[in-house]
Amino acid sequence: MTATSNFGGERRPVGFVPLAWRNLLANKPRLLRSSGGIGFAVLLMLMQLGFERAFFNASLEVIRLLDGDIFLQRASKYRFATKDPFPRRDLEAARTVPGVVNAWPLYADWHHVFWQNPTNDKNFLVRIFAFDPDQPVLPLPKLEGSPKDLSDLDTGVVDRRARRFLGMDPQPSAAELNGSKIKIIGSFALGPDFENDGTVVIGDRTFAKLLPNSRGGPPDIELGVVRLTPGSDPTTVQQAITAAVPSDIAVLTKAQLLELERKFQADVSSAGPIFVMGTLVGFIVGLLISYQIIYTDVAEQQPQYATMKAMGYRTRYLVQVVLEQAVLSALAGWVPASLVAILLFRIVGEVALLPLHMTLELALVSLLLTVGMCLISAMLAVRRVISTDPAEVF
Amino acid sequence: MSAPAIADSVSLDSLQPTLRVEALDHFYGEEDSRNQVLFDNRIEIGPGQLVVMTGPSGAGKTTLLTLVGALRSVQHGRIEVLGQSLSTLGQRELVRMRRNVGFIFQMHNLFDALSAYENVKMAMQLGDRPVAEMRERGTAILDRLGLGNRVDYKPRSLSGGQRQRVAIARALVNRPKLILADEPTAALDRESAHKVVDLLKETTIEQGSTVIMVTHDHRIIEKADRLVHMVDGRIASDVVLHDSMRICEFLKTVDAFQYLTPIELTHVAEKMTKRRFVKGDVVIRQGEAGEEFFLISDGTVEVMREGHDVAALGAGDFFGEGALITGEPRNATVVANDNLDTYVLGKADFGAAIEASRSFRDQLYRAYFLRH
Fold it and tell me: Which residues make beta-bridge pairs with B353?
């Protein structure tokens, strides 16, 4: 008997009835409801995942921009955007290490500098970066104006993409930082993140005047930016620098610096769990919706499935049809949801000044979640097909 | 005549009945709530029969059908379908077994998403027909059921009768040797029911398929070969209705046809005609050339040789085969004792039946020539 049948769940030769596909397309209003419901859940997940990535990317953006190979910061500094500077002489120790071309300081402050909106005289906390204008260790994106001019005291460049209420765009000619007048000589396009509304970049001399060292000397350094000679081995140099500087200074590659920040955001800050929770809620909503859709469909077709069993189809084949249909339903929900997400990311990204983008990674992750969600629902609903007794249809 | 030598030349498979049920009991429920629904059922059904099952609801008809169709596991007793015992089959083999059976349900249970043809194709996918030939075959059977212009219609745009006919096409498309049907015409109008029954009847004749049908539709009962009546889980009566079925039962006892397969026997039976004699008629006369073979349906005859009575024959007996086999003149005279009903088979058809197995014919010739 084995040789007489060419089918029954063992294999699916070409040219056989695509039952799952036909079932999906059979009822257009139902398909519309199904992709609407599943798509809504997908959109929920996509927004959460998109915001999560935007949040992470925004906080990592400045680190990515840094023009250096090895970075020095205080070992106790647990994240980038917190003030924990170290003395200038520790950076100088690094300069003498073989393989190091030079090492320049980046000054920064997140907590102490208020910017006065020149149009309405309101004060806002801003993020400050400062460096030697001759050694621009933080290249500014789409900079208009010459960074060299920052060597003049009380000058600064502002972020055109800062939040509107700061009044940095259109670029004002002058503004106040902590009450002292500065001349705005240019602007760049960086954008806010979830914690900082705007950024002002000034020269190291202006920084020293604005936030003097409590001991009166030059300000301490937030981050040492080290450039290596081409061809030198970063790991070797990193070890040599570590040996040359005091033990309370951490010597990190850019990847390590990024990882430190990412880990903080994901594990320590409340942001990571919030987005995970949000995605989970979307996933569960999707589970409920897709289960409802798939279960109803399976229940409606139960007599048909029972008849298939009576004809000699294996349960495995029928399970396969239900799972296949679930994957197709997942796709039918995911495709429109992704298109809507692309549009929403554009609009929300523009309004909220956040780097919201539909990336390949985001597309794949959301697709995987959607297919997984529908497959779980299908596996729950398919029990009904498995238990169907073909003798009952008689 | 040595039987084993002859048996070798005939396919053993085709000699087997389509269905054999022995000492079949069945229970529903477990332990205390166990309820027996079938009691010691026995029946044997050969190929080419249209069997109608009747009986009050709850008599066990459907249970018997589902057991025979491998939809339930046999608990007590034995069911053989196409020579295969169902009780020895595992779950996997039971599923395979179902592919040899055509099911027709009261509800059509077609997939709304599939066209009439695709619904039929779902059944063909379980058969051994190449994909390339499916369209032609599927269209042909739908056409045969009067749905030639509805092949690509979805069930929603078909009438109830048309849907049921699609379901019947689905059950018949793989030419199953056993077709089980539960009230297949209940939802059909007169014309559709006729088409369906005609097709089922035709399948029994042309393909030698056996149809077992639960129905209370008298239009079908009229066409049945056999009527099985069930009451309270038992087969209360089992009546062979059709002439050809009766003839088959008689023919089985004829030496000359002993090794014909049941299908071949049916073919022979279909070719026999009824002939009536009155008291004193000479049916055959000694010395004349043999042209026909006779089977007594009702009445008795006197066989005389050289003017002496040598035997008396009654219903179920037969005569006249010797001269047809040997080609010699009649060796006896047969006279009707009273009103006599016979079934008659012509020389050519008789010869053709014997020809069916060449080596069997040789054996037969030897046996008859040795005897005389």
Answer: none
CB environment A45-73: b (16+ within 10 A), e (fewer): bbbbbbbbbbbbbbbbebbeebebbbbbb
pLDDT tens string A239-264: 999 999 999 999 999 999 999 998 88
DSSP-assigned beta bridge partners for residue B84? B81
Q: What are the Cα distances from residue A228, in Å, to A67, A99, A244, A246?
A: 11, 6, 15, 20
Chain A CA closest to residue B182: A394
User: Touching check for A117 and chain B: CB below 8 Å?
Assistant: no
| pLDDT tens-place string over residues A315-340 | 999 999 999 999 999 999 999 999 99
Render pLDDT for A55-99 as a digit per residue (tens, 0 to 9): 888 888 899 999 999 999 999 999 898 999 999 889 998 998 999
HSE (CB half, 13 Å, CA atoms) of A187?
16
Q: Where would I find the beta strands (DSSP E) of A238-350?
A: 249-253
Q: Does B28 touch chain A (CB under 8 A)?
A: no
Q: A-chain residues within 8 Å CB-CB of B65?
A: 394
Whether A25 has its CB under 8 Å from any CB of chain B: the answer is yes
Q: Which of A300, A311, A387 to mutate to test the interface with B (most CBs of B within 10 A)?
A: A311
Do B112 and A26 lie within an 8 Å CB cutoff? Answer: yes
What is the pTM for the complete model shown?
0.73
CA–CA distance, B213 with B193 (Å, rounded to integer): 13
With a CB cutoff of 8 Å and minimum separation 6, the contacts of A210 are: A113, A128, A177, A178, A180, A202
* Subunit contact B131:A14, Cβ cutoff 8 A: yes
Hey, is the C-beta of A6 within 8 angstroms of any chain B C-beta?
A: yes
pLDDT band at A4 (very low <50, low <70, confident <90, very high): very low
Position B364 pLDDT exceeds 70: no
Nearest residue to B354 via CA among B17, B6, B18, B46: B6
CB pairs under 8 A between A and B: 104
* Whether ipTM exceeds 0.90: no
* Domains of chain B listed by start with CATH number: 16-240 (3.40.50.300), 245-371 (2.60.120.10)
Among B162, B227, B226, B229, smallest CA distance to B196 is for B162
Q: Please state, in angstroms and as integers, the Cα–Cα distance from residue B368 to each residue in B322, B363, B364, B371, following that order.
A: 7, 9, 6, 5
Cβ of A303 within 8 Å of Cβ of B107? The answer is yes
Which of B111, B151, B180 to probe the A interface (max A CBs under 10 A)?
B111
Nearest-10 Cα torsion for A68, A73, A78, A80: -40
The structure tokens listed for B352 are 């053709």
Alpha helices in chain B (DSSP H): 3-7, 12-15, 61-68, 91-98, 116-124, 131-144, 160-172, 190-206, 218-221, 243-251, 262-271, 321-326, 347-355, 358-371
